[in-house]
TrEMBL record:
Entry-linked InterPro entries: DNA-bd_HTH_TetR-type_CS, Homeodomain-like_sf, HTH-type_Tx_Regulator, HTH_TetR
DNA-binding region coordinates: 28-47
Domain of life the protein comes from: Bacteria
Protein name: TetR/AcrR family transcriptional regulator
Domain named HTH tetR-type: residues: 5-65
PANTHER family assigned: ACREF/ENVCD OPERON REPRESSOR-RELATED, TRANSCRIPTIONAL REGULATOR, TETR FAMILY
Source organism of the structure: Allobacillus salarius
Keyword Repressor: yes
UniProtKB keywords: DNA-binding, Repressor
GO molecular function terms noted in the UniProt entry: DNA binding
SUPFAM superfamilies xrefs: Homeodomain-like
Length: 280
């Protein structure tokens, strides 16, 4: 199992470098397998086409970033220090995977529905990540401003990310992370001190808390838990649940039935209970 997983990763990493250097359309499958030092048949074991490979590249980088930030977060009790270290990891990964980001930003690839869905999931995770860190740092009194602060935080982080990639800047990541946290303090404490009225009064459906929790469950089922018949049914159930949330009049019987299927996976019970409390 490990050997197979390593081959897939080798193919993904080789394609990232080649796509960034030569472009998506002018890189052949043969060139990818040559660079990865694997047989051509290995490519088609994992990917039906280069377009399917792109989906895996998005997933690969997203999961790599999330996993490393989760690991560093667990090592610190102070939420501010934990957040600063997460930012360091984010900016460091950005610098070390610049070829990947360049390729994704060049707009060479048509965005199909699967990639579009993955991008939306990434937005959900980023927004949820921002809100969780902001709530931990600034506490209950800051609840009113969480949505606006999450938007502003993502804007700051994405702005420096674009600068690092597009202009070949070479900031020290620890210094940039600390600077970002101080600017966040300016924004957040400033909103409170000036008694600002929040700009974000209502969130779109996909950023509502129930959708964020559902997405968190789907990500865990797809990436952290061994695949089997139970997890596959749970993934189908969470997708049905998210579709139900989008309806004008969601049916309670459908929601409850799907939750029962999902909570059969022990590792999701914490998130499923959060979802139940929110719905009820």
């Amino acid at each position: 199992m490990t050997e197979l997983k390593d081959k897939k990763t080798e193919i993904i990493e080789a394609s990232i470098e080649l796509f960034a250097k030569k472009g998506f359309h002018t890189t052949s499958v043969q060139e990818i397998v040559n660079k990865a030092n694997v047989a051509k048949g290995s490519f088609y074991t994992y990917f039906q086409s280069k377009n399917e490979l792109i989906f895996s590249i998005y997933t690969y980088y997203s999961n790599l970033t999330q996993n490393k930030m989760d690991q560093v977060k667990e090592r610190y009790d102070d939420p501010r220090e934990a957040f600063k270290k997460q930012l360091e990891i984010f900016f460091e990964l950005l610098k070390s995977n610049k070829s990947l980001i360049v390729m994704l930003m060049q707009g060479q690839i048509s965005i199909d529905k699967d990639i579009e869905s993955l991008i939306q999931q990434s937005k959900q995770r980023n927004f949820n990540w921002a809100k969780e860190n902001l709530a931990a740092i600034y506490g209950e009194d800051f609840q009113l401003y969480l949505n606006d602060a999450a938007i502003l935080l993502n804007g700051i982080v994405n702005g420096y990310a674009s600068w690092l990639i597009g202009d070949n800047a070479d900031f020290e990541t620890d210094r940039l992370a600390a600077f970002t946290v101080r600017r966040l303090d300016d924004v957040c404490y400033g909103m409170q001190q000036q008694n600002e009225e929040p700009m974000i009064q209502e969130l779109p459906d996909y950023l509502q808390e129930r959708s964020l929790i559902a997405q968190e469950i789907e990500w865990k089922l797809s990436n952290e838990i061994e695949s089997n018949e139970t997890t596959e049914k749970a993934i189908e159930a969470i997708q049905v649940l998210q579709e139900e949330f989008q309806k004008e009049h969601p049916q309670s019987v459908v929601i409850q039935s799907m939750l029962q299927l999902i909570e059969q996976v022990e590792e999701t019970k914490k998130e499923t209970n959060r979802l139940r409390r929110l719905i009820e």
